[in-house]
Amino acid sequence: MLIRSIVAMFAVLLAFPLVIHAEMYKWIDDTGAVTFKDTPPPASKKKKKVKTYTDADFDPAPTLQPAAKTPPRKTASVASEKQALPKQQFNGTVELYVTSWCGYCKKARAYLNSKGIPYVEYDIEKDAAAERRHKELGGQGVPLIVIGSNKISGFSAQAIDHYLENAK
Q: Region annotation Disordered: residue ranges (predicted)?
């Protein structure tokens, strides 16, 4: 009797497969490298070549084949667009929410210092008002970097550069 009930439960589990939904993003960055991530690129609304993949796009039993190596494409129109549009450097206040023990906070601080970017640093463990603002901004970890109306969770030199050049 026990074996029959176990077999019956196993049969029910096999009859109803679990479905997990996820999205993957693919884009070509400024250097021509193809990037796949589960989060959109920092400027997804400005990039035209962002492709979002869902579960329906994936073959349940894919065949693995070696990827073809293609050199990055550089066209004259892309180069001329970059020359035609002058980039404006962010001139507001950069806020850095940190803790004293965080290694990535130290990297973010060192990166901003190396670029000569002025910032205001708040230690969320020593300042209750800074901790409250960190939570209001949706911070769940450190460092939290605020550039204009943009928030960066964690340290990413590429994201910092992007938001400094395209801050809102």
A: 38-78
Q: What is the pLDDT along the chain (168 residues), one digit of tens a residue?
A: 788 888 887 777 777 665 555 566 676 777 667 776 767 776 544 444 555 555 555 545 444 444 445 555 555 544 444 454 455 566 788 999 999 999 999 999 999 999 988 999 999 999 999 999 999 999 889 999 999 888 999 999 999 999 888 866
> What sign does the CA torsion over 37, 39, 40, 43 have?
negative
Rounded Cα–Cα distance for residues 160 and 168 (Å): 13
